[in-house]
Structures are given as structure tokens and as C-alpha cells.
Amino acid sequence: MIPASEALQRLRDGNHRFANGEENNLQSINQARRAELVDGQSPFAVIVACSDSRVPVELLFDQGLGDLFVIRVAGNIVAPSQIGSVEFAAEQLGTKLVVVLGHSNCGAVEATLKELSKQQETRSPNLQSIVNRIRPAVELLDHPSLHTAVVANVRNSVERLRGRSKLLKTLIESGELTVVGAEYSIESGVVDFFGD
Prior knowledge:
By secondary structure, this protein is of the alpha/beta class. About 45% of the residues lie in helices and about 15% in strands. Strand 1, helix 3 and strand 2 (about 70) form a beta-alpha-beta unit. The longest helix is centred in the last third of the chain and has 18 residues, at about 145-165. The mean pLDDT is about 90.
């Protein structure tokens, strides 16, 4: 399995191709590649992303079949099932890089901001569970914009992955796993990886 630094560079390079209209991932979506993956997978990165239809993870990183282990949920929140999925990829598949990917104009984060300002009240207990995962990241911000709330939510999810799993914490401390945050701009197509 490739190291996290190399995996991160592959994502950067793929996003550069995507944002500039130079995608070539169709080369890795063919019958031969499908046949290679029948007996197993070895994705080079885990991406915890929002389920927004405008955020097609494999496409925006210009990757093909078997390259990414993608976990999608509204608001790119991290709950026990997402942590378990990341643990599976890190421990069983040997993946060295995890990226929590937020995006501009995130509806789940916007719904949370509206609820905090009392502009709306979530009625569904299922949707409320998503809002409740986002709330701690944004409720302490002074006059948050949607952008600052998206970034805070990504950072909160990164910290949940780093601190809510003994397995992940051990892998991170030993240098075997790296967890980073990023934000995808729907407007430009560019992914901005956070330095922390």
C-alpha cells in the first residue's frame, strides 16, 4: 500500500486534472480492471464525504474502480458506523490516508445554521440526528458564514476520527495512518486540503 503522502499527492493531481477538464479515469473503468478487482481491493485512500449529488468523489479526484474507499453521508458527519467503516479500511485493507471532504453550499450544514438561528426546526428525528452531529462544530462560532461552518464541521469530523477510536488513534500515533480535512468548491471544482 502506498504511503499517505503519495496517496495525498495522487488525490491532488487527480483533482487538478478534474478542475482543468483533463480527466482520464475512464481508462481505469473497463472490463480488465473489473476482473482485477474480483478477488479483493486495495484502495489507496478513504474519503468520508457528503452524499450531495454535486460531489462525485471518484470523478472529482479523477480516480477509477478500486482506487478509493468512499463513505458518503449527508454533512460528511462521523458517527459510529462511519468510524467502523474507516477502521475496516485502515486495518483490513491497509489504507494509509483518510480524507474528510466537506463542500461549498452544503445543505446539511446550512440546515444546522438555520436551526441554530431558529429559522427552522427539524421535524424528522432522522434528519435531527445529522443536525445534532454538525451542531457542536458550528454553535460556538461567532456569526458563522456557511463557509466557516463547513470548515468547522470538517475539522470536527477529523477530530472525531482521530479521537473516538482506539484502533485509529494507535495507527495515527504510529505513523501508519494520516487523517486530513478538505473542502471541495462546487463552483471551481477545486479541492482545498487543510494544513492541519
